[in-house]
Automatic annotation (TrEMBL), chain A:
Protein's name according to its UniProt entry: Uncharacterized protein
Species whose genome carries this gene: Rudanella paleaurantiibacter
Membrane spanning residue stretches: 21-45, 71-93, 113-132, 138-156, 186-205
Keyword Membrane applies: yes
Keywords: Membrane, Transmembrane, Transmembrane helix
UniProtKB/TrEMBL annotation, chain B:
Organism encoding this protein: Rudanella paleaurantiibacter
Any single Pfam family the record assigns to this protein: HTH_34
Lineage: Bacteria, Pseudomonadati, Bacteroidota, Cytophagia, Cytophagales
Gene3D superfamilies attached to this UniProt entry: Winged helix-like DNA-binding domain superfamily/Winged helix DNA-binding domain (1.10.10.10)
Domain Winged helix DNA-binding: 17-95
InterPro entries named in the record: ArsR-like_HTH, WH-like_DNA-bd_sf, WH_DNA-bd_dom, WH_DNA-bd_sf
GO biological process: regulation of DNA-templated transcription
Designated name of the protein: Helix-turn-helix domain-containing protein
Length: 217, 98
């Protein structure tokens, strides 16, 4: 009897472990959120506008060409740095968690997760490059939120289900930011900063702190 | 009780085979090495169980070459899926009776 119960539990665990990447660390989310907050603060201090009307379309339209180019370059560079730092820290914490669990980081499930996320992300990157080329800076920030949300939604099939809810929030925020154009930096900060930190802490509490709640344990 | 046990499938008697099937149920296909990593079995052991499942018609084998390296992937057949589901149902029913 006990033997059969144990067999069933093991089957469940195997099914989950073989098709999903469960070593995603909550701390990865928190660190990405903190990096995003720092990035947003740097941009805010540099562009220095009213907090609630950060990067308004009207103001950008009044910039001279040289000034626009300067702001543009600065934003792209900051965004790249934020992306690299967030990715680096995110990978670091996830690798650490996988090692602790004794699970391989690079397996079928993680490859599938990365591929599922990479396609929408690269498409979004392409769209953002086009928007930047047409000087539609005010559209770029919301679009990053939307495509990131779609990438998460696609990836949620291959990792903990909770990612799905984060995805819906990012998409909703992005769409909202598309219409309320004056506040795009604020929306971006909430989406990439605050939501990541909240989500990461929730995940940390749910899975990382207490190993008995581990979905595959 | 006898009736319930009648649905237990002999092919899944060993835990390794049950594990292999459960992995193949949720993954469209899986390589030999992928299975080995997940189940922590030795090459010989895994190959024996896979052959048994293949002979039962529960697993489909596909042999390819990646460059010069042979790469074998496994898939659950329709019969395998059905047999596995029935076995699981029997297992569940058995546990419920206790």
């Amino acid at each position: 009897m006990n033997e059969h119960l144990q067999t069933l539990t093991e089957i469940r665990s195997l099914m989950e472990r073989s098709s999903k990447f469960l070593s995603l660390s909550g701390l990865s989310g928190v660190s990405a959120g903190i990096v995003a907050l720092i990035g947003a603060a740097v941009v805010y201090m540099r562009v220095r506008t009213d907090w609630l009307s950060v990067l308004p379309y009207e103001k950008l339209a009044n910039y001279g060409l040289a000034q626009y180019e300067q702001v543009h370059l600065f934003l792209v560079q900051t965004a790249m740095l934020v992306l690299l730092a967030a990715l680096g820290l995110g990978i670091l914490f996830t690798v650490r968690k996988a090692r602790k669990q004794g699970q391989p980081v690079w397996n079928m499930a993680s490859r599938r997760l990365i591929w599922a996320m990479a396609v929408p992300l690269l498409a979004g990157g392409g769209v953002c490059l086009a928007l930047l080329q047409y000087r539609l800076l005010f559209l770029t920030l919301p679009v990053t939120l939307i495509f990131y949300g779609l990438a998460l939604l696609n990836g949620s099939k291959y990792t903990v289900r909770d990612v799905e809810y984060l995805a819906y929030c990012e998409i909703a925020l992005g769409l909202l930011a598309l219409f309320i154009t004056g506040w795009s930096l604020l929306f971006w900060t909430v989406g990439f900063g605050v939501l990541h930190i909240l989500y990461g802490m929730a995940m940390y509490w749910k899975y990382d702190r207490n190993p008995t709640h581990q979905p595959a344990a | 009780m006898k009736e319930l046990l009648a649905h237990f499938n002999k092919a899944f008697e060993s835990k390794a085979r049950l594990s292999i099937m459960s992995v193949l149920m949720v993954n469209e296909s899986m390589s030999f090495n992928g299975l080995k990593e997940l189940l922590a079995l030795t090459d010989g052991n895994l190959a024996t169980h896979l052959r048994a499942l293949e002979e039962a018609g529960y697993v489909l084998v596909q042999k390819q070459f990646v460059g010069r390296k042979p790469n074998t992937t496994y898939q659950a057949s329709e019969a395998g899926r059905q047999a596995f589901t029935e076995h699981l149902n029997a297992l569940e029913a058995f546990i419920r009776t206790i």
